[in-house]
Amino acid sequence: MASAGLSRRRAAAATSPTADDDDLPSAPPSALSQSSPPTPATEHAGSAFAGGSRIAYDPRDLPGADADAEGGDVPKLTLMEEVLLLGIKDKQGYLSFWNDNISYALRGCILIELAMRRRIGVVRDSGRKRLPLPERAITVLSTRQTGETLLDETLRMMKQTEDAGEKMGVSTWVDLLSGETWNVLKIGFQLKQVRERLAKGLVDKGVLRTEKRNFLLFDMATHPVADAHVKAGVVNRVVALLTSGTSAVPPTALDAPGTQCRVLRAVCLACAAYTASVLDNAFGRLGYEEREGAFGRCDEILGEFGVWPFGGGGGPEPKRKPRIAMGSAGVDAGRESVRGLVTAARAEAVGGDEDAGFELIAAVLEVLSKLDSLL
């Protein structure tokens, strides 16, 4: 019975001889020479991959499918996954039990990721500038699915709330997604098991693996690192960003060329890891003075990007005071590096200071900068 439509991936079996093939008459050489030439491997005529077999696929999963709509290619790991990866212990496979900041910071990263993918932004109202950044209302710019469960779930809740005639500010959304509310009618907005769901997503992507670990009275699923190269790449990008001594952004601190919002994504990764209290995990090979200098640099970056427009001054107060004296050359190099980041990030904005998504990111960073006082 001839098969029609889509075929299996394993299509090479048709060329292998079987017991029944010996009974079939062989075609004469003249017939073979008159037959049509085989289709080249480069012409896969509607298939997702080269090879000739027709395979079902989602066009949105192909590299560059949404590059025009989102301003570049989507990276392999989301911002939330990279922050979680920095916090997970390589061999043990779990986060620190004493870290209370990461859950709140991950909710902020969800809003940042949606804003960088051009799904949400602040409401373009002329009177919004009278309000503080965290209180400016969020609006849905696009309901196109992202393919990430947490992002799509959050986007759906925002759209339903907006359709009901209610628009809430940035800080309110971060609180509701974290479950930090006394309003029983808003309990349903809390995202459940965010860390576990992100870890399972990293398992599906081959970065982590799942193991069962015994903790005296109970067993718990842990997720040790399976691909150390991926985590090392995240660590190297953060360290390169916070130890650079030039005004030019080092290429080693950025994602692959063509990635959407490369500079701003690197800045948000460092700031989110800092506020989530997992940044020190990336500084294992740095000396004491280098660590303190990197923390101070991240504090300056958070102050410059927690305002709108970026680098406009008047940002949040530094969270930590330097415990060592730095020479004037080191201070000047750090300031030049931060100025270079601000310039490069502002160049990525669409419409300059009228970019609704970047303004929302600045609001989230300001909320995260006050995380210690909130908790």
Automatic annotation (TrEMBL):
It is a peripheral membrane protein. It is found in: Golgi apparatus membrane. GO terms for molecular function: phosphatidylinositol-4-phosphate binding. Residues 1-53 are annotated as: Disordered. The keyword Membrane applies. Keywords: Golgi apparatus, Lipid-binding, Membrane. The keyword Transmembrane helix does not apply. One of its GO terms (cellular component) is Golgi membrane. GO terms for biological process: Golgi organization; Golgi to plasma membrane protein transport; Golgi vesicle budding; retrograde vesicle-mediated transport, Golgi to endoplasmic reticulum. Residues 1-18 have a biased composition (Low complexity). Belongs to the GOLPH3/VPS74 family. This is Golgi phosphoprotein 3-domain-containing protein. It comes from Mycena maculata.
